[in-house]
Design a protein that fits this description.
single chain; mainly alpha; 2 strands
């Protein structure tokens, strides 16, 4: 069920004819591709992967913009609809609850059955429908309608993430996987910065604080944009990286990583990664959803001013993504994950006890160090999955549903205690996630470092390393050398 039969066996992969990466790039416009077949995309070079990655990076910006609007809408609805912080957490519950439904079922099945292109298009169309649903919800001032709209939006975005994250991670040389996803998600962070800046000057500037008309027009514009983007992706050159390609790549790296094919039930690193991502995302959203109200309580500023402070925090988040991406060029990702998680633990604890602008600064630094966590957990968790890469990726995306639980709990504590004390809820989530880099650095250092050392996707005198023509030339050269040596001996 849900595409289980789409995963290949390693023996089946090794018996197939190996297409070259040139063939993979030449067949970018086909309608769909078998997940059990090789395409040649396991050895794409940096140059071959640049254009597809740029196209998919636009989806990360779109996701970041939607996520940035979500946190401001949370504060807006508390004011306009006169609801509690705990009830407003239902917005996050609806949005992130969709991640529990889509990736393990229809989204994961789509990406394994039809490939990345059609999953991108399906996700954009679902997102567009959800954005259109904001209009009747705003007209009727229905909080339930807004929650339903956000559930559809979340369904679309979870479908996009089910395809976009593994695509970026696997499209290109494997040693740059963490760098690629970190850099692409930096543009997601830019979208998260722009959204609250726009919202503070649109949603909070009306003379009537209960006016929701601007929310309607904002999401109508978003719907038009995503439907147009779906058309663009229909005609765009997108190479398909299948689970068969990833199985081959894992086998090629086995001398460095110690890789051995295992059934999915024995992929313990993946399971820990799913749990860590669940708790981390929940904690991140718990902080973000209450950042504006925390700032109002801490420094006594207005909602509009607090929204600007949140935009500064998101700016630090974006800066942290670029900084982490740069650091990954010379520092091992498992070390970066450990460092950033340690800093988060320090500053979230400080934010609970410090008031005024200093408290806002502490929480803003939490956002800075949150920047690298999601993409790094994602890429390190799928390292070495081989033929299970797409299914494992969909599980990690599904763990984003942690964002449905923590904001409501954080809001509940904020309603009964204070927003400062409420930060203890994200603190617990961060603590669980903090155990993951400790686990990786203790038990999986060799495997992760091996993927960093492989030269697949790079070129030498015989062509692209890991590509079929390269291996054929190497084998031919070895055969000729052996024949020559035998002739000399005779």
């Amino acid at each position: 069920m849900w595409g289980r039969k789409e995963e290949p066996e390693v023996s089946e992969v090794l018996e197939q004819r190996r297409p070259s990466n040139v063939e993979a790039m030449a067949q970018q416009h086909r309608k769909s591709v078998s997940n059990r077949g090789l395409t040649g995309a396991s050895a794409l070079t940096v140059r071959q992967s640049i254009v597809p990655i740029i196209l998919v990076t636009t989806l990360f910006f779109l996701w970041g913009f939607a996520y940035g609007l979500l946190d401001v809408l949370n504060a807006k609805f508390q004011t306009s609809l006169n609801i509690t912080a705990a009830k407003a957490g239902g917005l996050q519950g609806a949005y992130f609850g969709a991640y529990l439904v889509g990736p393990p079922t229809y989204s994961g099945w789509l990406v394994r059955r039809f490939g990345y292109r059609w999953t991108f298009i399906a996700g954009l169309c679902i997102y567009g429908v959800g954005a259109l649903m904001f209009w009747p919800s705003a007209v009727n001032r229905s909080f339930g309608g807004f929650c339903g709209s956000l559930f559809i939006v979340g369904s679309g975005l979870s479908t996009l993430e089910t395809s976009a994250n593994p695509f970026i991670a696997t499209c290109g040389p494997p040693r740059l996987s963490e760098f690629r996803l970190e850099l692409s998600q930096s543009f997601q962070a830019i979208g998260s910065v722009m959204a609250p800046l726009l919202a503070s000057r649109v949603f909070f500037t009306s003379a009537n604080p209960n006016d929701l008309s601007k929310v309607q027009w904002t999401y109508l514009g978003i719907a038009a944009f995503v439907f147009l983007l779906a058309v663009v992706f229909f005609f765009s050159p997108i190479p398909e990286v299948t689970d068969a390609d990833m199985a081959l790549q894992a086998e090629q790296c086995s001398d460095l990583t110690g890789y051995q094919d295992k059934p999915l039930r024995k992929q313990y690193k993946l399971f820990f990664g799913v749990a860590a991502q669940f708790c981390y995302v929940g904690a991140q959203v718990g902080v973000a959803s209450q950042f504006i109200k925390y700032s109002v309580e801490s420094a006594g500023i207005s909602d509009a001013a607090a929204s600007d402070r949140y935009a500064i925090g998101q700016g630090l988040f974006a800066l942290g993504r670029f900084a982490a991406a740069g650091a990954m060029m010379f520092m091992k990702p498992r070390y970066i994950l450990m460092l950033f998680m340690t800093m988060i633990m320090i500053f979230i604890a400080a934010a609970m006890g410090v008031y005024g602008n200093a408290g806002i600064a502490m929480l803003s630094l939490v956002l800075f160090f949150e920047s690298a966590i999601f993409p790094t957990i994602f890429t390190l968790s799928i390292r070495g999955l081989g033929r299970h890469t797409k299914r494992g990726s969909s599980w990690i995306v599904a763990s984003v549903c942690g964002g449905a639980l923590f904001p409501a709990l954080t809001g509940l504590v904020a309603d009964t205690k204070s927003y400062h004390i409420a930060m203890c809820v994200p603190l617990v989530g961060f603590l669980v996630a903090f155990a993951f880099p400790i686990f990786l650095n203790t038990y999986y250092a060799k495997e992760l470092d091996g993927f960093r050392e492989t030269k697949i996707g790079y070129t030498d005198a015989d062509g692209t390393i890991g590509d079929a023509p390269h291996d054929e030339r190497r084998l031919s050269a070895v055969s000729e050398k052996d024949a020559y040596l035998k002739g000399v001996e005779v």
